[in-house]
Structures are given as structure tokens and as C-alpha cells.
Design brief:
homodimer, alpha+beta, Glutaredoxin, Glutathione S-transferase Yfyf (Class Pi), Chain A, domain 2, four-stranded mixed β-sheet, 4 strands, 54% helix, globular, GST_C (chains A, B), glutathione transferase (chains A, B), transferase (chains A, B), Glutathione_S-Trfase_N (chains A, B), glutathione transferase activity (chains A, B)
Chain lengths: 244, 244
């Protein structure tokens, strides 16, 4: 059946928005991509505020054949909505009600618990590099203290938790987070998990050795065809990784 | 119909968990309350890790008549699950599909965008009061810088956004966030919005004057009967507000 709804993705480079492109590819949906580039301060540009008052990305706009426009924001909700409404073949649909409950939990967990820790670390990391801080080494010491007291232990706890889930899944012969198939849980958690293994936000280089099952999960994830397609699509806008 | 499922709420004092008690009262559900008290460092006690590996609150456990136990974590998901499964009279059910989409968005927005800003501010506030920071006044200056650069402007943007939504709703004659009735959106956002007006996390005393529609919304919210019931229930565990 030809796709009746028109889909537009407002997409910010180096952002959580890339996983929405993965999902759209997975669901065989075509879409228009509107690209926004980060400012020198690594913030979203003002133009995004014309799309949504909070100026965040991603925002997905769906135009129905009758002209109705549905605007979606918040990645967890976007993933939920797109799967509920467009996964007509049940490709990503969990096999049981128990699995469905788990996926819904992860859609909230990813953005409500795990990702905020990474944002907190990123904000602190930027704090040591951007004026008007009194002196970089002092800012560094304070930030290190905050990380050691809160963000570090919390991140550690979450990585252990996810590593344990990956271990249990691997021993059941599954390379996915829930059941035996790809789901919204893998897609929503891909961004923070990829961040852990590709940026300094794992907090230490030994993260690969300390969380081997999560690393194996990440390696399997990287082989997903639609994720690769999405990455190829966005490579042109992210050729030079931002160094922070 | 008598309630067949047994519900247990693992509840931490001074936490987001209080709104789940509101929702349970709203849905006329009875439940067992297990109380956990914060440590001197304002953290959750270790016992909570025996309930859920992340040691967070709230966690809701539902025991079905056949013995199956469903464990729910993440407040947005808990609210969604309880309403989907126990709002048999449609008391909180949105009137239209558009309103339902809005409520689902807010369930993600509250915990994925708004609440993390308040947590970030709380973590920074604690940083200036707890060793091992180099010196409190220096930590204070750095933290003030981080707040001024990131958390302050982001919080401002979100308060304007919510104030605008409240204004539009008030001018439509509604005292709720979505449509003309109480919904999961009001319940999930009650905790961060109450925090804004009752703790220093609004960042300045003028928050009442600057966001009058949001304040009016908050005042109306405070009059909700089931919220009052929940507050009375927990008053015994929160008699002495923690000063931070």
C-alpha cells in the first residue's frame, strides 16, 4: 500500500534524532529530512524554536491526507507513536504482553533515567571549557567532584543494570533487549548506549572490559541494516565529529 | 467490583512517588504502602535496590489472582499502565484521540525533559554543601556558572512553555493541561510544577509573578481532592521538610 501520510523529520546533527531515522527506515517509511546544525556552543539553533517552542530535536510532523498535521516530540513518544501507527506487519511488535510492557518501560527509562545522566555529564564537561568560569582548573575540580558524587555512581549502576540485561538476553540466545526480536527498546536505547562506547561519557576507557555483555550488545546493534542506512544518510552532515 | 489485583507501592519520602498515590486514590484502588526513608545525603536507601536493581522509587508491584507479579518502574510508564488497566470508568480517559496523544506526549515530556532540569539543579545545589569540594564558595561560583549557562535558561524556556499552555487552557475555561478534564498529564507534571513553586528550584522568588498562569494552574491543582488525600497520607512521613 502506498504511504498516504507525509512525514517530515526536523533533525539536529549529533543528536538523539538519528535513531528516529533508523526506525523510519525499519518501517519502510519515506520522509522529508529538515537539517539543523548545532551552534558553536553545541546548542540547537534558534530556528528549531519555530518548529516547537522548546527548540528541541527531533520533532516529527505527520500530515494526513485530509490536511491534519500531527506534531510529535519526545523521542520515547515518537518511537511509540510510529510503531503503534505504522508497524502494520508487526515487525517490531513484541511477541507477548509481558514483552510489550518491558518495551514500554524502556521507552520511558531511556529518556527519563539513563539519558539525563549523560546530559548531566555533557553539561559539566562543557562547563570546564566555556567561559565565564572562574578558572578552568578550578571548574574542573568542582565538576570532577560533582561527577564523583552523583553522575559517576549513577552511571555505573545503570551500566551494570544494562550489562546484566544484555547478559541474560545473550544466554537466552537473543541479541536484543526484549524477547527475541528487535523492538522500540533497542532503538530508543541505541543512542545513549552508542554514546557510552564512542564518547568519553563512559567516564573511563575500561568501559569495554567492565561491561562486556553490553559491549557485545552494542556491537550487534551496530550491524543492524536500517541503523547503517540511517548512519549513511546522516554521515554527510556529521563528517567532522564535534570534539568536546 | 471488588479489586482482584493486589497493589504494592514502594515509596520514598520527598520523592516523585507521591503522585502515584494521588493516581491510585483517583482510581479508587487500594494498595499496600512500603515506606523508605532518604539517607542523610538525601539519597535513596540501599534497601530499595532489593526491590529494583536501580534502587529507585516509585516501584509498583501488581500481584494478579493467579500469582503473576508485574513490576512497574518509571513514573511515566506507571501512570500510563495504571490508567490503561484500571481506569474502567474512563474517569481520566481523554475525550479525543488528539487529547490522548497530548497526554502521552506529556507523560514522556515530564520525565524526559522537565524533571531532569530540576534534578540537575538539585545535584548542583547539593554540590555546594557536601564535601569533598575544594571550597564551598568556589564550588558555589562554578555551580552558579553552570546553572546560568545551561539549567537556568532551559528551565526558563520550559516554564514559559508550560505557562503558555496553562494560559491557553484557562482561556478555554479549563483548569487542566489537556482538554477539559483531569488526565495523566496533570498527575505526572504535578511533582515538578509543585517543586517549582515550593522549593528554591524555580531559581528566583519572582517565579509566581513571572509565570502567573502556571501559578494559577498549580493553585487549582492543589485543590484536587485525591491529591489532598495523598498528601494527608504521606504527611506523617514528611512532617519535617528536608532543608537543602
Amino acid at each position: 500500500m502506498p504511504q498516504e501520510d507525509r512525514i517530515t523529520v526536523h533533525w539536529l546533527n549529533f543528536s538523539r534524532a538519528q535513531r528516529i531515522l533508523w526506525l523510519l527506515d525499519e518501517l519502510n517509511l519515506s520522509y522529508d529530512l529538515k537539517v539543523y546544525e548545532r551552534t558553536k556552543e553545541y546548542r540547537a539553533p534558534k530556528e528549531l524554536e519555530q518548529v516547537h517552542p522548546l527548540g528541541k530535536s527531533p520533532v516529527v510532523e505527520i500530515t494526513k491526507p485530509d490536511g491534519e498535521v500531527i506534531q510529535l516530540a519526545e523521542s520515547g513518544w515518537i518511537v511509540q507513536y510510529l510503531i503503534d501507527n505504522y508497524d502494520t506487519e508487526g515487525k517490531l511488535k513484541p511477541a507477548t504482553i509481558q514483552d510489550s510492557n518491558k518495551v514500554n518501560y524502556f521507552l520511558h527509562y531511556s529518556e527519563g533515567t539513563f539519558q539525563p545522566l549523560l546530559v548531566g555529564l555533557l553539561v559539566n564537561q562543557m562547563a570546564t571549557k566555556v567561559p565565564p568560569f572562574p578558572a578552568n582548573w578550578i571548574a574542573g575540580a568542582v565538576v570532577k567532584g560533582i561527577n564523583a558524587k552523583y553522575y559517576g555512581p549513577e552511571l555505573e549502576k545503570n551500566l551494570k543494570y544494562l550489562n546484566g540485561i544484555a547478559a541474560a538476553q545473550h544466554s537466552n540466545g537473543s541479541k536484543y533487549l526484549v524477547g527475541n526480536k528487535l523492538s522500540g527498546a533497542d532503538i530508543i536505547l541505541s543512542f545513549p548506549i552508542v554514546s557510552i562506547f564512542t564518547t568519553g561519557r563512559g567516564l573511563r576507557p575500561s568501559v569495554v572490559d567492565e561491561f562486556p555483555e553490553l559491549h557485545k550488545y552494542y556491537q550487534n546493534l551496530s550491524q543492524e541494516k536500517s541503523l547503517k542506512n540511517a548512519n549513511e544518510k546522516i554521515a554527510q552532515y556529521e563528517r567532522n565529529p564535534l570534539k568536546l
